[in-house]
Amino acid sequence: KKSLRQRYNDTKHLEIENLDNPQIEWLELAISNECNLACRMCDSRYSTKWFEEEFEFSGKATPLTKINIAQIYPFVPTLKHLKITGGEPFVTPDHWRLLDYIIDKGYAENIYLNYSTNCTVYPKSSIVERLKKFKWVEIALSLDSIIPAETEYLRFPSNHSDVIKTIEKFILLQEEINLKLIARPTVSLLNIYHLPETLEWLHNKNIRFNATHLTFPSHLSVTVLPKEDKIAVENKFKSFDFTSAEAKKQCDYIINYMNSKDNPQEEFLKQTYFLDKSRKQCFADVYDYFC
C-alpha cells in the first residue's frame, strides 16, 4: 500500500513543494472530545457521551477536553490541509471560530478541509457558506452499516433514518461546493455480516469507501467471533452477488483478517452485558444470526 505521504503527493494540490525548507502544511486536530453519540467502539477520550458509563464500568473516564484554538493561529499562513476530527466536529463551537479566523485572514482559498463525522448533524446554511470559501472539502462519513438495527445498536443513540437523510444532504451539497465524500466503515463483529450490503449501497450512491477492520477495542474485533460464526460470515460473502469489484476486494481483505487468528470472547461478553443493560438494548435481538 502507498504511504500517507505518497498518497498526498499524488494529490496535486496537497503535494509538498519544498523539502529543503519544511513548514507546517498539514494539521490533524481533535479540537474537543465533545460528541452526541456513545458508539460501542469508542470511549470517553473521543466522546463525552461515554463519560458516565465508562466511569461506572471502570472507575475512571476522561472529562470534556478542549484545545486552545489560538495555539493554531501561527500555523494558518502555511496550511494546505486541515483535518478536523473529534468528538463530533459539527457540534464543536470552537471549530467554527477557527474557520472564521482562517477566512478573515484570507487563507481559506489555500486550504483543503477534511472532516470525520458521525452523520447525525448537517451543518446550517451559515456554516455551508463558510465551507464554500475553502479550496476543497472532503467529508469522511462514519457509516458502519446500512441495516437500521445495527446502526442504532453500534452508534447509540443515533437514528438510522436521520443518518441516511444527512448523507443524502451531503450528496446534494456536492453540487454547491467543491466537496467529495468518502465513507470509512469501521468493521467489527457488530457489523461484518452485512458489510457487503453496506459497501454496495455506498457504491450505488457513488460514494468512495475504505472499510477498515477494527483493532481497538480488541474485544470487538472480527477475530473474536466464534469459529461457527466466522464460517457463516465467510459463506455469506462467498455467495453474495457483488456488483462492485472494489466492494468484493475489501470484503475479501476483511475475511482474511478475520481468519488470521482467534481471540477470546470473555471481554466482549462482559462489556456487552454491561452496555446492553445500561442502554436497554439486546445483542440477541439485533444479531439473531449469530445466536
Model description:
With 291 residues, the protein is α/β, with parallel strands linked by helices. It has a six-stranded parallel β-sheet with strand order 1-3-4-5-7-9, with helices on one face. The protein has a two-stranded antiparallel sheet with strand order 2-6. Strands 8-10 form a two-stranded parallel ribbon. The mean pLDDT is 93.
Which radius of gyration do the C-alpha atoms yield? 20 Å
By DSSP, the count of extended strands is 10
The CA-CA distance between the termini, in Å, is 37 Å
User: Per the principal axes of the C-alpha atoms, what is the gross shape?
Assistant: globular
Q: How large is the share of residues in beta strands?
A: 5-15%
Roughly what percent helix?
Answer: 25-40%
The number of helices is: 11
- H-E order: HEEHEHEHEHEHEEHEEHHHH
- Overall residue-averaged pLDDT value: 93
**Main β sheet profile:** 6 strands, parallel
Low-confidence stretches at least 5 residues in length (pLDDT < 50)? none
Structural class: alpha/beta
Strand order of the largest sheet: 1-3-4-5-7-9
Keywords, separated by commas or semicolons:
single chain; 291 residues; alpha/beta; two-stranded antiparallel sheet; 11 helices; 37% helix
Q: Layout of SSEs?
A:
Blueprint (H helix, E strand, L loop, with lengths): L3 H6 L16 E4 L8 E2 L11 H8 L22 E4 L8 H12 L7 E6 L7 H7 L4 E6 L6 H7 E2 L3 H14 L5 E5 L2 E2 L7 H10 L3 E2 L2 E2 L13 H13 L5 H14 L7 H14 L3 H4 L5
Parallel strand pairs: 1-3, 3-4, 4-5, 5-7, 7-9, 8-10
Antiparallel strand pairs: 2-6
